[in-house]
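Purpose: get a first structural picture of the assembly so the mutagenesis plan has something to point at.
Setup: two entries, given in the order below. No constraints added.
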Amino acid sequence: MPAFDDLLAFDHTTQALGQVAGRLGWDQETVMPRGAADQRAEEMAAMESVLHARRTDPKVGDWLAGIDPATLNEVEAAKLREIKRSYDRANRVPADLAAQIARVTSTAQGKWAEARKADDYAAFSPVLAEVVSLKREEGAALAGGGDIYDAMLDDYEPGTTGADLEAMFGALRPALTNLRAAILDKPAPQGLTGSFDEAAQLRLSATLAQRFGYDLGHGRIDKAVHPFSSGSGRDVRITTRTNPDDPFNCFYSTIHEVGHACYEQNIDDAYLLSPLGRGVSMGVHESQSRIYENQLGRSRAFTGWLYGQMRDAFGDFGIDSEDAFYAAVNRVSNGYIRTEADEVQYNLHVLLRFDLERALMSGDLGVPDLEAAWNDRFEADFGYAVDRPSNGVLQDVHWSVGLFGYFPTYSLGNVYAGCLYEALRGAVPDLDAQLAKGDTTSATGWLRDNLQKHGSLYQPREIIERASGSAPGPEPLLAYLKDKFSGIYKL
Amino acid sequence: MPAFDDLLAFDHTTQALGQVAGRLGWDQETVMPRGAADQRAEEMAAMESVLHARRTDPKVGDWLAGIDPATLNEVEAAKLREIKRSYDRANRVPADLAAQIARVTSTAQGKWAEARKADDYAAFSPVLAEVVSLKREEGAALAGGGDIYDAMLDDYEPGTTGADLEAMFGALRPALTNLRAAILDKPAPQGLTGSFDEAAQLRLSATLAQRFGYDLGHGRIDKAVHPFSSGSGRDVRITTRTNPDDPFNCFYSTIHEVGHACYEQNIDDAYLLSPLGRGVSMGVHESQSRIYENQLGRSRAFTGWLYGQMRDAFGDFGIDSEDAFYAAVNRVSNGYIRTEADEVQYNLHVLLRFDLERALMSGDLGVPDLEAAWNDRFEADFGYAVDRPSNGVLQDVHWSVGLFGYFPTYSLGNVYAGCLYEALRGAVPDLDAQLAKGDTTSATGWLRDNLQKHGSLYQPREIIERASGSAPGPEPLLAYLKDKFSGIYKL
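Result (structure tokens, whole complex):
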């Protein structure tokens, strides 16, 4: 079918340009000269304008109209679905509104950074109100009469609605607050002592990356302020960071990003630079980073192996057994900050944001009341008060840059990771014996073959169901957490 | 004038995209994972297709037709000239021919590398014949009835013809062969002994870059197989290389690339991402790299300072005086390879290529006869025979990738550097006293203010004439070389 072939050829170039734009982002965070920021903004804007013109090109609409879906096989139909989704979305948002959002969020991000530094929510509230108003307008344009928040969520997690998440998270919240309270009633495990050479951290971090299957022939590891994974296909790069007092930050950031990167590296060669050649959603992506980091990387078995590696690299650091090391890796303690939270409390931070941002989008919560609503909810779930806005409502950049519908994909990823882990344990009965030798081959191979290789062929819930054998729900994650932390804390 | 404003806005985005494509090239040579080459080729092709579409966009033609040049000031007229030149050129070459050249040169580059390894010109000759035939076709399309070689030259050196170069180079050749013969009759100066720590080379190389005014806030230095400079404006990166036996390779490659990079960094802020925001031609660019490297960097005064730096960095390396060090830096010896040649012999290598490639383009020389023609000419100028094709006709990549008209800009750059250096000495009477302290501020400041800051505002010959005070010719370069090498070799 000529229309379909032409559409795919056009999209191939668009995908390649998208990779180039992504590489510019990597460059900016790792190697760009500090004085190049202004010029880089112009270069990024130029790439964005080219990409936007291609995504909304009327030729794409003509090709789409000329294709008979009944003639397509499964792979072709999935390609068509992804292209159509991108085209429809890009065309639903008026260009003026998109430009206004770009301008206002650029200002808002700067104001957010200043307000966070000054611990002053009132200084940020007016510009956030502008962002919220514009995003609601965008959401309405996308929703075409439907639910605004669902339309935004669809950008990050196609096929999942706010109501789906509400049901899932509603089951998580009481179970997690109860588990948290039970754990914090017990004595805290021992922490690490001493200082950890940063070059040695980076060496062990590279070993970990390779142990988890990251292919350095198609990637690289650099240092950056915030760890991230970037790119698809044959060039998937990750970053990490070091803190001399806290080697776990480096090691588990690395394993987390390796989870993201392996998903991209392991997609079927046949989908390279096609609409299927990327991870299918934020939630499924996060399921890979989380299962690598937590269910595998923080397991009793794997931490036993890691303990030996760390003793070799750093000598004595005040922990004298594998069990004590396992407890230190999985230590639960009070804290305000989402990105520093442990497996038990992390989702409580996310659930809070999900409820608040959904209320902002529906109009049930006004921006001026957001700080108080945050603080009330935090105290209800965590049992103590937020001490200052930078430890509360101002801690995350997301809302300032207009990301609404993004936060819940973090917890959805954890839920998906729980489902996948349950199935993985069934498929690899001697998993612990392998992990205890630092060998993740069977585990990561199972994830590659059952999930990663498919890229965007299947929709998010569909791929989780295919891989795990049943419809995704929060029970496996909860069972895993209860079992794991009951063991560590002797609950 | 709306047409002019629209044209400039459109061109601004094109310039920004050009910078992005250039950065991809930098990435490929420095940090790209080795397995990413195939995907990168797709990404580069996507960028090229976008850039080509913009350069040939009929809107540009409409805008150009709607502008009355009489209403423009000097800067505006120069911008119009540059845009028009690019538009006319891009539109003169049929898209099919451009695509065919891209395909054939891609194959030819691979065949050249194999043939060079196998020392077998006959294995390369057939594909080179294809390249030559296609480039002649392209040249004819560009020339529109005029001289094919002049049309190609115009790509790299607007306003200079083959006849101009023939006259200039005709004066150089006998003078250089005579100077070379006189030098090689004398005893060779002492060379360096010992091994030079590569990390220490890179440290001193960074010091040299900063001594010559390279701004690391808007650039960076990495290692690469071939040194190069990349980018314009606020992000101009260079690469260098190290050889434990030959620190001069690292130091003078660095200074050379710093000359290119400073030209780009020092262009007037007002021209950023405009058609004037780049060096105006290959020849003028090479004049900057060469005057930094040779007239300044290899001067008796500056090498005196460098000798002290090298003693501090490396201890004893078998040279016991500044004079002996100066002679070692400027040592002239027999050799086959252009890129390894000294100041005296370098241009003889280039002149040979200029005459041969001009004959290939005119049809006076057939590709099967190229090897014999090369070898005859080499023996005539250098006095000994080429021992194998990899030391002769197969040594450079240029022709395999279709670069005809490029080689002579190397020597033109040396000629221009000679003119500029004569004027610079007049303008900075105590130049040697400054260079002897490792201080290039006055010299590089003079080049910045008289040449570099103008970017592409003036045409190549015009900017050299403005800066040096007279029409460019080979005499200053010859006088400089005779004076310098008569001193070193006591001719």
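Chain A is about 65% helix and 0% strand.
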